[in-house]
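Fold this sequence, please.
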Amino acid sequence: MRDYENPIYVPRLPLKIIACAYILWFVVVPSVVLIRSGQLQGLPVFIAGGLTLTGMGLGALFVHRLILWFHYTFFWYITAAFAVGSGLCAGSIAVGLFTLPPIPSVPLSPTLQAIVQTLIIPGAIVGIVILVLVFRPRPRPAAPHPVAPAPVPTATPAPVDPAAAIRERRRKLGLDK
């Protein structure tokens, strides 16, 4: 089976571009907004939540691939271009155009602490594992070795006499004993 016929095949370059766009959307932009607002106490929660959403987004890509069973590689390049363009738009809107009012610092309630401990932190770990799998180096396949042609068996010389040829054929077929 060729790679593009595999239902979960995604070309490596667009997958890396999509992963970088998700990191931009869900980790970098919220972190920059928090840093600009001067409220660094929420930064670990925002980063963990962003990594969780990144893992969920990449997982949704694979589920989408399995459901639709596309055989066309160009779909992923279009998705990668859309992810980069919308990530850049989100970054420019969030960081450059708006001055955000200060976010009130709210201490984490026990319920929110439980949510962070049970969902967001493990989700961030899963997101990191998915990113490691996306960006891992792949070994290059070895160059194929040239195949030596099979030796051609030498044919026995055919008898010149037609009667001898018939006798030889009958002997090979086991009709004459």
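The chain has a mean pLDDT of 76. Residues 16 and 134 are 7 Å apart (CA to CA).
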